[in-house]
Design goal:
284 residues; Diaminopimelate Epimerase, Chain A, domain 1; 25% helix; alpha+beta
Length: 284
């Protein structure tokens, strides 16, 4: 019976859009519900109106809502919206989209997915219960001394290094406990230039090599539960610091999430699990 249900579900997803739009809410970078980072996913049969997508993202009121439509057998065009803005790269909503494509039999599970996005071509493949994403690595440039001082004040932690990445500011704290316990001044963080602020420290508790948190008040997300795209900068930084390409990371938000990372030159492999918690219909 399960096979019939998913086959019908795949047909429903790819059928022409009528009065309703099927959507999924997926908890990403976790193996259990109510943890990780929730994302809404819409699989459409053609490009959607941008204002409609913005309205839907505000209605979903999650850190990201993903909209994908098919280009060819394995390739989908993918866009991501917070309740406030469209973003150039999103890891957890990409992972959630791949999860939906395979779970709903839109793609066979053994078939890798390709996503055409504002950050180029992204890949996703299923690997023994995990989803592996192929993302671009971020470049790091040392931040100005003034930024380090602002970060220390806004985060109320001892920032020992700071960098600008493709999208964000990366702040390296002196200890795992300070990252876990910090209570930032969100209004001050919102004034810093960039999409968001990554705070990280070396892992002190096995099995994690490093931990992080991510704040993006300027993009409408005070604290993001698990941020795949932030690990595009964290992977090269910690790979260089720890002297190894493969690592296990933990994002220490209240929901928390686990990310496998591997630095491969100008690419980063991000591994995570996902689980669907809501299937619904939008009647607008």
């Amino acid at each position: 019976m399960r096979g019939r249900e998913t086959s019908q579900l795949a047909k429903d997803i790819m059928s022409p859009i009528m009065a309703t739009h099927t959507f999924y809410q997926v908890d990403a970078f976790t193996e259990r519900p109510f943890a990780g980072n929730p994302a809404a996913v819409f699989i459409l049969h053609k490009p959607a109106d941008e204002q409609w997508m913005r309205n839907v993202a505000r209605e979903m009121n999650l850190s990201e809502t993903a909209f994908a439509h098919r280009i060819d057998d394995q390739t989908f065009h993918l866009r991501w919206f917070t309740p406030a803005v469209e973003v150039d790269l999103c890891g957890h909503a990409t992972l959630a989209t791949a999860h939906v494509l395979w779970e709903a039999n839109v793609l066979p599970r053994h078939t890798p997915a390709r996503f055409q996005s504002r950050s180029g071509i992204l890949g996703a493949r299923w690997a023994d219960g995990w989803i592996e994403l192929d993302f671009p690595a971020s470049k790091l440039q040392s931040a100005e001394v003034s930024i380090v001082d602002e970060l220390r004040t806004a985060l109320n932690v001892n920032v020992v290094e700071a960098f600008r990445t493709n999208f964000d500011v990366l702040a390296v704290a002196d200890s795992e406990s300070s990252v876990r316990q910090l209570v930032p001044d969100i209004s001050k963080l919102a004034r810093l230039k960039g999409r968001g602020i990554i705070v990280t420290a070396r892992g002190e508790i096995a099995p994690y090599d490093f931990i992080s948190r991510f704040f993006a008040p300027a993009a409408g997300v005070d604290e993001d539960p698990v941020t795949g795209s932030a690990h595009c900068a964290l992977a090269p930084y910690w790979s260089n610091k720890l002297g190894k390409p493969r690592m296990l990371a933990y994002q220490a938000s209240p929901r928390g999430g686990v990310v496998r990372v591997e630095h491969r030159g100008d690419r980063v492999m991000l591994g995570g699990q996902a689980i669907t918690v809501v299937r619904g219909e939008l009647t607008a």
